[in-house]
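Hey, can you fold this one?
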Amino acid sequence: MNTKKSFLNKVILTGVIGCLSLSLISCDKDEKETKEIPVTGVSLDRSDLTLSINETEQLLATITPENATNKKWTWSSSNTSIATVTENGLVTGVAAGEATITVTTESGGFTANCATTVQGTVVDPEPPGTFFLSVNGETAAYIMLTDNLVSGELQISDNVKTLEQTGHSWFFNENPSVAVGLIYQQGDPGIGLGISLTKNLTLNEPANFQISSRHTSYGYFDKYALATVGGLTIAGTERSDGVTVNFIDVTNNFAMEEKTIPTLNITGNGEQATFSGIVDMGNGEFLTGLVVSQPKDPNAGGGASSGTITYPDSCWVAAFDKDLKLKRIYRSGKLSYSSGRMRSQYYSQIGKAADGSVYVFSGSYESTTTKPCGALKIDKNATAFNSSYYFNIEELTEGYHFRKVWHVADNYFMLEIYNTVETGATAAATQYGIVDVAAKTFKWITGIPSKEAISGTGLPMGYKGKMYFPIAETGVDPAVYIIDPATAAATKGLSIRGAASLNAIGRLSYIE
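Sure. Predicted structure:
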């Protein structure tokens, strides 16, 4: 017997078996890695819907389990002459009657239905438009346009405009429909960008402007975007109680006019004020929260315009006309001042509800205040706070304070809440909640990443009864989360692949 040959055959056979074993193991591993996770069901955020003719409503579908492999679905209407539905779940009332809107999963054919009733009343159709996204990549900032925020993904390469600079703070106006982006220059003059749509729903060439006085708060009033800053020196004096308001005319190629007024003794206590937030009352006046303080020490660092807060337990709101003529002061001792603070910025904490009432929130920022976080109310056309309305929010948030406030819809507002019960100029705030100011209720928002996982957020958009909130999560593409204010439950929507952050969401329309 040839032992050498026998040994060689054993080696070859063993090698073949070994390779076969490795191959089988590898195949088994690949099979496990590619094993499909089946869909087990689908649900809608509502089971019934009532619309007027031309009115639209967004339905949200959720597939279970959350990690199912195939999350595709289709939408259909049982009667398109009554109600139609787009591929993204946007329902439109067409004529009086009833229809059933159905979503069907591609995998497994699971369905969920929404019984839809269209009433005979007719509303004006929404002007044609699209959604505006401000997105940052690794080295540049972009603008993206999309008709869908509720599902799927976009690539950052799908952008329609590369911006020359990064760091814009965007805010949007409905009519005239514009987006204004401001860059804060650390105490130097601010840089502005104005954007609107063409009739073809593409971007007009952006308008560039400069805000020579810088800005620490902003908002819309009439046909103007307003950018304000306080603590400025009054010409011919040594006083530093001036507030400058930049009136940016969004109907005239964003032409700007600068107006400055003194604020010394504006509330009758000998102190000066900084403006925080802008609310257009629709009657030729705007409201702004007042942060009342002593003059700032000229040797003090930082860009904030406020000095020492002598009256931390008082809340003031001022009403002005377009000439910055003071019309009245609203005052209360139930809350501290109405403003969120972060370094030199003054974040708006006032907002108008659907019925025209203005709610004045206070996040109780000052460490010296004895007042809790809460809200007061100014009824439509009222000249004083509603004395019978007081909402203690802090007792519902378990002691947490809030920094920013946004109106969602009806009587719902969303709060940005500090991560700890301590506040501060640089403290993290990545918790969120919904308040119903009429019912005086609070709910923590569910369905979004944890406060530890959130690496950044952007300007949200209240649209057709829901809040669309951009969130960046560590290690994950930034995405839009759609929040139902009635339940405070969020559903993950559109993702932006390759983006570092999603900074703002707004809707732009073309209005002739």
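The chain has one helix and 41 strands. Let me know if you want another pass with a different chain boundary.
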